Amino acid sequence: MSNVAPIPSSASHGFFQAKPKLENQFHEDSSYSRTLDFFLPTAIRQSTAGPLAQFGAKVLSPQFLLWLQNAEQQPPTLVLRNSFGSPRNELVTSEGWRCSQDFALREGLVASGYENAHGVHTRLVQFAKIHLFCGSSSSVTCPAAMQDGAAKLIRAQLRDPSLVLDGKTRAVLESAYKRLTSRDPSQAWTSGQWMTERPGGSDVSATETRAKLLSEAEIQRGSQAVATDGSPLGPWSVDGFKWFSSATDANMSVFLAKTAASDRVSLFFAPVRRNTDCDASLTEFNGVFPQRLKNKLGTKALPTAELELKGMRAYLLGKEGSGTKEISPVLNVTRVHNAIGSVGGLGRGLAISRAFARVRRALGSRLLTDVPAHVRGMAHQHVEYRGHNMMAFFVAYLLGITEQDEPSTKSLPLVASPSWTSHLLRLLTPVAKAMTALAAVDGLRFCMESLGGLGFLENEDVELNVAKVFRDANVLPIWEGTTDVMAADTVRVLKGRGAKEVLEALNGWTNSIIANEAASAGLDLKALSTEVKLVGEWIREKDVPELLYRGRELLERLNWIVTTSLLAADAARDGDAVAMEVARRWLARRDKSLAESLAVQPWEERARWDREIVCGEGAKVETRSSKM
Ligand SMILES: Cc1cc2nc3c(=O)[nH]c(=O)nc-3n(C[C@H](O)[C@H](O)[C@H](O)COP(=O)(O)OP(=O)(O)OC[C@H]3O[C@@H](n4cnc5c(N)ncnc54)[C@H](O)[C@@H]3O)c2cc1C
User: Which is one Pfam family of this protein (predicted)?
Assistant: First the structure.
């Protein structure tokens, strides 16, 4: 024992934790890499690796993190009155927010989805980029999602032979589409999507916003201002109140309103801003009056406002009274964005958790990566993440297939029959939206805890601020439809018109995976067939009220079937030991005998697998005999 008394700690002396280093997720996130390996053909995987790696570095660069910090610290504000009390109507956003948004546009986060550079894999490459972006994005991914949905909607309107568009309306929509898919921030448009009103967002039938078709004389008497792209304003005048508008700084919006001809909602499109009557170089809101900004738990940089619409000039899209149907292409796209946003956010949280575990010591001097109880919790979340990544990207893949001008008549990898694609997409979009969002919130709560007290702090080192990622993630199960609303949508698909074809597609697809791909992994997949049968029985035997009551169970079952099938197919691809273990753990959730065999596995063996799943350093894993 030394006689020298230890020096007590002080503000500048003693232990200081080394800063965890967050690595480029393109290289460090093995689940992300494996998911891309699984879905992308080798040539596309290779040709996109350089640009994606560069992008992964950019979103963690000091410049980008400064924007992120600035956007978070300077939330948007409204200026509603001047010093003398006269009305003003301005929304002010931070420089960080605007720069992040310009960056997203330049990088083609939406545009790339329409450039068709990779055929059926175009959407996968687009979403691979968005996945990397989510944790750094200041929530500009929200208007980007709605921009994407609006682009898809307007393209569909322009191409629909059953819609007779007059020359003026066609030109207006063509201009909007061009801007929605532009990479030039000075030209590009983002979009809002206004559905939620005070009576309810889940059920839009009580919409109170009203649209009135103006006569030619009324149009002549009104403002002669034009939209910011020079297009004339629409012939409808809209009054109402939108309770949640996330993209209040968007250039245009698609929204629901009722007309005199129908008590059902109709879909409208309008530029949010127009040139002022007095000076064509200045812009003002197009009959939009923000009332207040929402005070939110997360997504602080995002200008979410309540909007009064007074004389907003708009165009009707599609048929009057068919708004719910007409807006569905938008929702289908934004829900895929939500799913990718969920796994992207969770991926960032887990990366922070890994970075911390690589430098933080416990139990005397052991790194957290060497503490089995800690790694066990991390492994559980990594297994979740792997599965949800597969599901989210599968839905993105299906979306990309359905969007090809010449739909494939041949079988594609993973989708043996082309006729299954649209049915699977329709069925799995709400499932993926709901389940990835819940997984993100659960997983990110764990990630915060894994950093101890630091996890709960609003860290100055913004790239490590897992609390912010958690706060932001909590909206993911709510907007674009809550979990129960997704469940109700799924029931509608399975009990509505076309339900038979949807179930056949699910059956056919799962059986093809079991027979063609997963069997070669040496996994016993009987539980999958049993579960598909059980879902079929539920749909046949239970009525709609009971299925709605059991909606979350239905979502979980469908999610398990598809995710486990994908993981088994992934393991079969190259026999990778970790992929096999992940597939096994998902399988065990509904395979009782496998669960029992895993439960009696020696803990040290299980702990070694945990470490392999989390750290993937080729830690020596004993081979074992089991029922597989
Ligand atoms: C940050 C943020 C940004 C948003 N941005 C936008 C935006 O830009 N545009 C937009 O239109 N909306 C936006 N929203 C609104 C969001 O989409 C709605 O809040 C959401 O759809 C729920 O609607 P609601 O709030 O009216 O809740 P309600 O519809 O009243 O739902 C309340 C509860 O009832 C449950 N419920 C409702 N119907 C059913 C049912 N049939 N079966 C079972 N349970 C049911 C819901 O699950 C929920 O738990 C935003 C919300 C937030 C928080």
Answer: AidB_N
